[in-house]
User: What shape does this take?
Amino acid sequence: MQLKRFENIKDRLKEYYNVLKMARKPDWDEFATTTKIALAVMFIVGFVGFVIYILMEILPKALR
Assistant: This one.
């Protein structure tokens, strides 16, 4: 039981190591594009949350 668990952990660590070996540093264009997309998504999610918040504040008062 313990040996099988150790082999499973060892195999998992080998997989992680292989992924890290294949990883590379992104060039500036790739980094800039990823950053722009992440900022746009954060803005959209924040805006949707703000709209929902405003609707939850205004609608109950308007329906009274």
Observations:
- The chain is about 90% helix and 0% strand.
- The mean pLDDT is 90.
- Helices lie at 2-22, 28-62.
